[in-house]
Design goal:
3 domains; three-stranded antiparallel beta sheet; 8 strands; mainly alpha
Length: 350
């Protein structure tokens, strides 16, 4: 979730947008941060919050030691927000395909969403896109990464996570600071998810019993995510086989697909995995092309990364160095005009 700062700094040529987002960014990330030590010494702050800050500091230390990196100033300060949401991402897709619209930003490339600090602003932009015929979805975000350009603070939105999910979140955001692929949000997110999961397992390895149930739950949700990716691809095939659909026709195909194929298969999968219907997370969404596109941004390449890791038969650290070294080769040879980094890796292995 993730490159919010860079969005808000470079996102749009409209002065009003830049002013609104820029001011809110300065307010939150420059005027509000409090040194962690002061927070820990403040008697008005709950012990629960203080313990979460200490955990984050421990996770950060573990992360940089694991990768033999020098610690940065990230997460040395804390910001207390009034809301449980940091920002709102607007994702848009055409009515006849599952593909997030790309928004271009100077210096950092293209991203499949655009961020707003205020829901009203996000909704206003959402309406504009819908008037252009796009299908949209607003995604709430409670964390971000400035990709190592700045020392990101701890956000009070982190404190709602339990210690295991908090570790996964922190490892995810920290991974963005040591490895970033230009113009490929999907692969960046999938790699950060992959490494954060593996690092979380390593961190809690000495307390395996403590996370055994969570690992089983995580595996079950991974199976559900595989199903969603599969079904999204099926829906995309339907759209591609009917290239001249009107918006009304596309909506009918989507409605039929959801009612007769997608939702029944999701319910069945949750039942087989013994996931209670109330915890079967895909049933909580109102699915449309933009929601599928948003989901694919974070999950599409995850399975390929898992397969590549198994095929390489490396330690996690060696796998990181393999990716890092090959990305340097990829950049030096300017392959991005010819093939994606993921495809480049596949050719290296096969």
């Amino acid at each position: 979730m993730k490159f919010v700062f860079l969005f808000l700094l470079f996102s749009c040529s409209k002065t009003s947008y830049l002013f609104e987002q820029g001011w809110n960014h300065l307010d939150i990330f420059y005027f509000r941060p409090i040194d962690n030590q002061k927070v820990l010494e403040d008697n008005k702050i709950s012990e629960e919050v203080k313990n979460k800050i200490k955990l984050i500091e421990e996770y950060k230390k573990f992360f940089y030691q694991y990768f033999s990196k020098e610690e940065t100033g990230i997460y040395t300060q804390t910001v207390f927000l009034e809301s449980d949401v940091l920002t709102y991402l607007v994702i848009a897709s055409n009515y006849n395909e599952i593909k997030a619209r790309k928004f271009s930003f100077p210096f950092v490339g293209e991203f499949p969403y655009i961020g707003f600090y205020h829901l009203s602003s996000a909704q206003k932009f959402q309406k504009k896109l819908e008037n252009e015929g796009m299908v949209t979805y607003i995604r709430k975000v409670d964390a971000y990464s400035s990709l190592g350009y700045f020392d990101d603070p701890i956000l009070s939105t982190f404190f709602s996570y339990d210690k295991i999910e908090l570790a996964r979140l922190i490892f995810h955001e920290l991974f963005h600071t040591i490895f970033f692929i230009e113009n490929n949000v999907e692969l960046n997110e999938n790699m950060a998810n992959f490494f954060s999961d593996k690092l979380t397992q390593k961190y809690f390895a000495i307390k395996e019993s403590e996370i055994s149930d969570r690992k089983k739950q995580h595996q079950n949700y991974l199976e559900i995510k595989k199903l969603i990716v599969q079904k999204a691809q099926e829906l995309q095939t339907i759209y591609q086989s009917h290239p001249n659909l009107t918006k009304e026709e596309a909506q009918k195909y989507l409605k039929d697909f959801l009612e007769k194929n997608y939702l029944p298969n999701v319910r069945l999968a949750c039942q087989k995995l013994k996931i209670k219907i109330k915890h079967c997370f895909p049933l909580k969404y109102e699915w449309n092309n933009a929601v599928f596109a948003a989901f694919m941004t974070y999950e599409k390449n995850r399975l390929q990364i898992e397969d590549l890791f198994k095929k390489m038969n490396m330690s996690l650290l060696d796998f990181y160095h393999f990716l890092h070294n090959n990305y340097e080769i990829y950049q030096k040879n300017d392959f991005d005009e010819i093939m994606s980094f993921r495809r480049f890796l596949e050719q290296k292995v096969n």
